[in-house]
Amino acid sequence: MLTRKIWVLTYGHAQGECAPLPGLSPDWVDEAHWNQILHQAVLRFNEVAADCGDTTSLVQAMETELDSYRRLHPSLVFGFESLLKQLSNNAEYKGETSATLPVNGLVWMNEIETMRTEAHQKVQAGYTCIKLKIGALDWLAELDLLQELREAYPSDRLQIRVDANGALDPDTATMRMEALQKMGVHSIEQPLAVRYDALLPQICQTGTLPVALDESLLVRYPDESSRDWLAQSGVAFLVLKPGLLGGFRVAESWIQTAESLGLGWWITSALESNIGLQALALWTLDQTRRSQNPLAQGLGTGSLFTNNFPSTLQVQSGILSWGSPS
Hints:
Helices cover 42% and strands 15% of the residues. By secondary structure, the protein is α/β, with parallel strands linked by helices. It has a 7-stranded parallel sheet with strand order 4-5-6-7-8-9-10. Strands 3-12-11 form a 3-stranded antiparallel sheet. The longest helix has 21 residues, at 31-51.
């Protein structure tokens, strides 16, 4: 991916970002279809706004309207919800100046030497948690890199998470997870492709490397059947992307489901620009405060992009904070 298309909603001072990811977002069939759906939603928003006499009524009415979009158009909902949260003037959106969030440093999939350099740079920059993408390169080379990192940085200094994006072979997944566990790896995200979800109870045995789920959640909804499935799966963590799941309200339902089962969770951005990331970070701050969740969150800062919007977000020593716009 060399470019990232987003659509910005503006209403008064408020802005929201709709950023469907081709291949992951159910919103996306093609650009013409997306524009048609978004156009219809904007027209409906304007109709509701014209009928409502005040902002509170508009927010309440639109939250109900968005329920019909959540399953099939999550990135659309994310954009409108971000805008509505600003309009509602919730406390967490009045502007944070002293708030902080621990975040992980993400090492993107690349040639091993590039990944090695980037991983060491992240630690030297002060990150105490890094996440590496694995499963696409030579396994022994990946294992050597992880072993080198663990020898250089013990578990009490550096938490190492890995993300397989479903790339592990079911026949060798258990063996590879055992090797990772011996190195003190914190968890493995989405070890198997979604089509192998039925095998999760076999690889998530007690005492094995903790498993976090990401893509497997994108094909489900946080209802009773999903709760029962999670309870039997043996997984330890949920990785939540509101822009792909159906917005903040759906992500909050997943958090409630996770906590009812004693599972951990963290929030991850999905290549949003600074507009979407700002809304996501403020919502994540609210959720982690409510639940006293100490885990490092997966919030990038838009540094991947060659152009971006001004932002008050900044990262120093693995801590996300709010400063002056830049």
